[in-house]
């Protein structure tokens, strides 16, 4: 690495829609760009997805395609899956939280039963499978089901943009489960809603980064209700909104004169 690297500065990136197209693999251009950036500052990833999904997207392209998890982790200073509830420094696990232990079985089932009932009453142009995905640090809810292929994801995203189904679903969740229940609801990616205990949004990852004086965060879901909103607005970060991986490269290049 270059001797010019600033050890007090961190670039923290959302993954889906920021470093990659939604649910797609990282491009060779982005991979090379992040490698050059890491010569200048520390680089970290924070995603709402679980570690396997982040690995699928960031495992490399071209000659580096499908590299093992440990190799992918070592390409970055930190990788935070599930908003930082599963945290790695290079390839070393820092910590892991459990939403099941935090909420308890009774609250978990209350929430899941409500969602299944709500979704059963909605007719969509398409529904597939895996509507509720239980992760370490969150519950991921998907009206159309996570089993959709990319074309079907795009179709749902377009339909949702017009009819605001996820927004309405979040409003129903907030009405059913008031603040004292302890859950937060955020629209994420193209098709899903992330559900997690209060404070377990992407700002959770910041507790692993106390030594950094400047943290630039880049994300695409930065509006209120989006799963990048809290960290985008946080007092410890300088938030940057992007609309695509291409725009991420442009903004970071200007910021660090790459």
From TrEMBL:
The protein's name in its UniProt record: Phosphomannomutase
Cell location: Cytoplasm
The UniProt record lists the keyword Ribonucleoprotein: no
Pfam family, one: PMM
E.C. no: 5.4.2.8
Enzyme class: isomerase
Keywords linked to the UniProt accession: Cytoplasm, Isomerase, Magnesium, Metal-binding
GO molecular function: metal ion binding; phosphomannomutase activity
Catalysis performed (reactions): alpha-D-mannose 1-phosphate = D-mannose 6-phosphate
Family: Belongs to the eukaryotic PMM family.
UniProt cross-references to CDD domains, sorted A to Z: HAD_PMM
A Gene Ontology cellular-component term: cytosol
Active-site residues, Swiss-Prot/TrEMBL: 14, 16
Organism, as annotated: Dinothrombium tinctorium
Its job: Involved in the synthesis of the GDP-mannose and dolichol-phosphate-mannose required for a number of critical mannosyl transfer reactions.
Subunit structure as annotated in this protein's UniProt entry: Homodimer.
GO BP annotations, alphabetical order: GDP-mannose biosynthetic process; mannose metabolic process; protein N-linked glycosylation
Pathway: Nucleotide-sugar biosynthesis; GDP-alpha-D-mannose biosynthesis; alpha-D-mannose 1-phosphate from D-fructose 6-phosphate: step 2/2
Residues reported in the UniProt entry to bind Mg(2+) 2: 232
Residues where alpha-D-mannose 1-phosphate binds: 23, 135, 146, 153, 192, 194
Residues annotated for Mg(2+) 1 binding in this entry: 14, 16, 220, 237
Cofactor dependency: Mg(2+)
């Amino acid at each position: 690495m270059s001797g010019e690297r600033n050890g007090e500065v961190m670039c923290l990136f959302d993954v889906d829609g920021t470093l990659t197209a939604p649910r797609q693999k990282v491009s060779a251009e982005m991979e090379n760009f992040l490698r050059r950036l890491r010569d200048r500052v520390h680089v970290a990833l924070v995603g709402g997805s679980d570690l396997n999904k982040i690995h699928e997207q960031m495992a490399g392209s071209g000659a580096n395609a499908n590299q093992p998890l440990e190799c992918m982790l070592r390409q970055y200073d930190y990788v935070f899956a599930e908003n930082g509830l599963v945290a790695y420094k290079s390839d070393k696990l820092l910590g892991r939280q459990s939403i099941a232990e935090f909420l308890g079985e009774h609250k978990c089932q209350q929430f899941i039963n409500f969602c299944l009932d709500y979704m059963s009453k909605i007719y969509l142009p398409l529904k597939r499978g895996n509507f509720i995905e239980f992760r370490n640090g969150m519950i991921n809810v998907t009206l159309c089901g996570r089993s959709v292929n990319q074309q079907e994801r795009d179709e749902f995203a377009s339909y949702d943009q017009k009819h605001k189904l996820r927004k309405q679903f979040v409003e129903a969740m907030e009405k059913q489960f008031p603040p004292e229940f302890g859950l937060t609801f955020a629209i994420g990616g193209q098709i899903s809603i992330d559900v997690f205990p209060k404070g377990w949004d992407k700002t959770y990852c910041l507790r692993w980064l106390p030594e950094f004086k400047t943290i630039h965060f880049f994300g695409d879901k930065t509006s209120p209700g989006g799963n990048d909103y809290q960290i985008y607005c946080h007092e410890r970060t300088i938030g940057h909104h992007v609309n695509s991986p291409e725009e991420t490269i442009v903004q970071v290049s200007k910021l660090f004169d790459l």
